[in-house]
Design brief:
Blueprint lengths: L28 H17 L5 H31 L12 H33 L3 E3 L6 H15 L6 E3 L13 E8 L7 E6 L7 E5 L3 E4 H7 L1 H4 L4 E12 L13 H13 L3 E7 L4 H11 L6 E4 L45 H9 L2 E5 L8 H10 L3 E8 L7 H11 L3 E6 L7 H13 L3 E3 L6 E2 L2 E9 L2 E9 L11 E8 L2 H15 L11 E3 L3 H17 L5 E6 L5 H12 L3 E6 L16 E6 L4 E2 L3 E4 L18 E5 L5 H5 L1 E8 L2 H15 L5 E4 L5 E3 L10 H19 L9 H21 L1
Parallel strand pairs: 1-6, 8-9, 11-12, 12-13, 14-25, 17-22, 19-20, 20-21
Antiparallel strand pairs: 2-4, 3-4, 3-7, 5-6, 7-8, 10-17, 11-15, 15-16, 16-17, 18-25, 19-23, 21-26, 23-24, 24-25, 26-27
Helix pairs in contact: 1-2, 1-3, 2-3, 10-11, 14-15, 17-19, 18-19
Length: 755
Amino acid sequence: MSEPDDTDGANGDECASPDLDAPRFYLNRELSHLAFQKRVLNEALDERTPLLERVRFLAIFTRNLDEFFMKRVGGLKQQIDAGITDPTVDGRTPHEQWAEILETTGPMFDRQAECYREVIRPALAEAGIAILDHEDLTAAERERMRAYFQESVMPTLTPLSFDPAHPFPFISNLSLSLGVFVRHDPDEEPIFTRIKVPQNRPRLVPVEEGSRYILLEQLIEAHLDLLMPNVEVLDTAIFRITRNAEVRRDEEVAEDLIEAIEEVIEQRRFAMAVRLEISADAPEAMVDLLADQLELDPEEVFYRSGPLDYRDFDALTDLDRPDLKRERWSPLPHPRFAEGLNGDVTLQGGDLFDEIASDDVLLHHPYHSFDGTVQRFLDAAANDPDVLAIKAAIYRTASDSQVIQRLIDAADNGKQVAVMVELKARFDEQNNLQWVRKLEENGIHVAYGTVGLKTHTKTALVVREEPDGVTLYSHVATGNYHSETAKGYVDLGLLTADRDIGQDLVTVFNFFTGPSLDEEFRKLLVAPVTMRERFTDLVRREARYARAGRPARIAAKMNALEDPAMVRELYEASMAGVDIDLLVRDICRLRPDIEGVSDTVTVRSVVGRFLEHSRIYYFENGAGPDDPAESTDGASPQYFIGSADWMTRNLDYRVEAVAPVTDSDLREQLRFVLEVMRNDNRTGWEMASDGTYEQRTPGEDPVWSTQEILMAATRAAHESDDDRGIDTDHPASPGDLLVTAADGAASVADDDATD
């Protein structure tokens, strides 16, 4: 069992209470995030991962680290420049965090490059997919590539020189560039020229479609004689820069929020540089010139061997090579919203609302189809003559969003439509601005956000006239109304006709368009007004039960556990004897397994083919493990799902909604998901008290892979409906279907692990 480094309470005087505010009890947010990125990179390193999936994870790792440098490192540099020296809860100043990040990420980039160079590239070649250097081309291929360069690439290029007659060229964020030193005659000083690698040309240029490729930057470098004739090329290097994305404008003084967001987008283009990546063999003079012009410290320069940017390697995963990929997964219909053999919808309009009214429905993406569930819910609402109004909160959505189109259709059909579009959704500001304009052009009332808060809740409300009066149909989800990310992000959604939840959503939507947010809600936990207090009370209640000798357990699945106050509450609950299972995908400040402080806490993380994005919160409430539904004295476990992590920003600075799940079948399904993840020995990782993670392995036990098991369970539910049809009066229990599928799913995962 791990012990703290000193004896300030936890292991010293047994009568003394540990100082839970001590920095040593808290992991650093940024370094914890980088530990997650190491787990992502491991998917590319893991031999059990199919080859093209390993390529995909190289690309994912690049995208993730790009965003990390833009957001987190950029924010730290702003704090350093502003002279901020206040330490975070873990005791590190902004400068100390910045320095540790740069020290940590260098070896990670080296490992990525080594993985590509020593493993992935040779394996691709062996599989008949060669990534070639220019010197590897045959004479005929070189001639063909030279013609392609002249006809299709060279016209798009614009060499920009830096000399007394030309200023240093602007270099856009994350753009790939070729730096060149040239001179006209031996007596001249070398001239630096920057050539932007065009983003509208294929990065992997097919020499032979499907089997032989060359990188576009190598093709440009090999043909500088055509692009810049009559000069001597002295040196070249590939480079790219990363700029800060933490550009903000004071909303309190902005006259117009749309104008403020447009200014933020424009300012990002010219924001300060936070990283330079450059070829490992780059000349020192070029590195010095770039670092000087971009005002970068030596620690912010990363020398890279091999490709600097793996994002475009995603294109290889589109090749028709099923032997190099996982079995393709296509989301299936929900058993309650089944389709006929030809895709004909068996539930339409009022039937769909009747189905929701009969029992709550739990959606689980990407196992369940987004189009066949959420989209159908909105389709039905837009076209049902009895629907009076639709309200929706949009944080991110697809560029060709059918969700937006259905809201427009609803307005055209005479329904009252109100939409909250969060303009401050980072990196989606431009997309959301376009949707705002389209919605307003169609006469829909749009709220843009609230001053000082982001609206992160993922909710929709349908108001329907029925014989017994007006009924409220609610959708409360953990993920965005985004049909594309719903195929790769694991998210949950609750469809319910619960009157109290509907009334709570009415209150939330009125806040988006009205002057203030109500501080009382019937069932929803709503940030920033009730959620923190309610979660705190639930954790403390488990601690009271533990002290009284009653069953006490907390299980929480989230993306990040960052809020120091919640970490402290969990420490105190553990010290009271509460069993705590944390399934945290990403950042986790809490240290598990500290004697006398967090003995009863485990922290696990699952990294698989889909991004775990759902949030589930479970509190045993004295019910006991023998009867997970209800104890003899009436106590019942409580389950919640929703949009909020246990992060300070979610609890205090965002509008969030978390809903209780009360239906016994749905709670059983959530329980199963938590248990499978807790026992995952294929894609699961477990944290030690120092913040490091170890991948769990099955040993002699059957292989349990969470996402494989849940895919198999969804297939089982779907096949059961195909075989027997759907009994809409007595639908099959999701929990029963999941349990039935578990053994078969474990076999599937075991087969996958031995491939």
